[in-house]
Amino acid sequence: MRLVNFQFYSSILTFLLLAHVQALYVKPHLERTHSNNLTFINCRSRTNSLINQYSSLILNLQPALRDLSAPSASPAFTAFFKDPNHAPFIRRILQNITTAAPTPAISDRAISPSFVCLDGPTQVNSTEYDTDMYIRCQDPHGPFATTLLESPAEPVITLCPRFFHLPVRLQRSKRACLEVGVQGKLFLSDGLDLIRHQSWVLMHELAHIYLWNTLGSRMDYYNVEQCLSLPSKRTVGNAESYVYYVANVRLGCTLFPSRPHPPRRGIPHHRGPANATVFDSEVQWG
Ligand SMILES: [Zn+2]
């Protein structure tokens, strides 16, 4: 009887998993290039630039990895993650990003993330967003990039044509650090200028994949004040908190608001649809 039940539930589970896998459609026969564990689909002449951005990201993550091994928490760590006990988990996420670690798949082989460069319709269709992802790119307030988590067997990040208009050269000067004002209690901007960069967007989307696979988290707060205001436990689930932390350590920023504040009135609630990277301050996804 038990066996019958097991088979019964097993067949339902198989059906559900297959249905889940089939939810994400990536057009077959698009050109694919493999590099550093990653797969770049339909990126053609942009593949080398993306590989360079990813290599640059790996280098830019090193100061944060060293920071996480330091005997005491840095100001950037305290600002964005608060509790030093989070350090081992954060290091694991950053290491997964630097190695493009394979994610546990429902099949017997683990698969590393793929980037799809969208340049036309019918290339990627998402049931989660209920749309052709290229059509979604046409929205001027839409995302630069989106992580699709509906198929655990194939973590896919789509890149809109607008992604390639973001800066390629990273600011490396401490002068790029966010300015603190209002008696040292708030950043003077929403922080997006700091992270509006191709390699930080790649990092953000990769963080989504590993946070989904470890915590089941799809948190997506972009505004730096919101990131600072998150309770300690929630900081580790928010992809952009990792980007702000890594970028601040990379630049050598040491000045942060004296204590977390709730977002100021009038600042849009930058919570996008799960896993979509949007920077436009006009965007309000609700
Ligand atoms: Zn996101």
Provide a concise account of the structure shown.
The chain is of the alpha+beta class. The chain contains ten helices and eleven strands. The strands form three sheets. It has a six-stranded mixed beta sheet, with helices on one face. A three-stranded antiparallel beta sheet has the order 1-5-6.
Topology (SSEs and partners):
Elements: H1 2-21, E1 24-26, E2 32-35, E3 38-41, H2 47-68, H3 75-80, H4 87-99, E4 114-117, E5 124-126, E6 131-132, H5 133-137, E7 145-148, E8 156-159, E9 180-181, E10 186-187, H6 192-195, H7 198-215, H8 224-229, H9 232-235, H10 239-251, E11 276-277
The structure holds zinc ion.
Structure description:
The N and C termini lie far apart (48 Å). The chain is an alpha+beta fold and 286 residues long. 39% of the residues lie in helices and 12% in strands. It is globular. It has 10 helices and 11 strands. The strands form 3 sheets. A 6-stranded mixed sheet has the order 2-3-4-8-7-11, covered by helices on one side. It has a 3-stranded antiparallel sheet with strand order 1-5-6. It has helices at 2-21, 47-68, 75-80, 87-99, 133-137, 192-195, 198-215, 224-229, 232-235, 239-251, and strands spanning 24-26, 32-35, 38-41, 114-117, 124-126, 131-132, 145-148, 156-159, 180-181, 186-187, 276-277. It has one domain: Collagenase (Catalytic Domain) (3-Layer(aba) Sandwich), CATH 3.40.390.10.
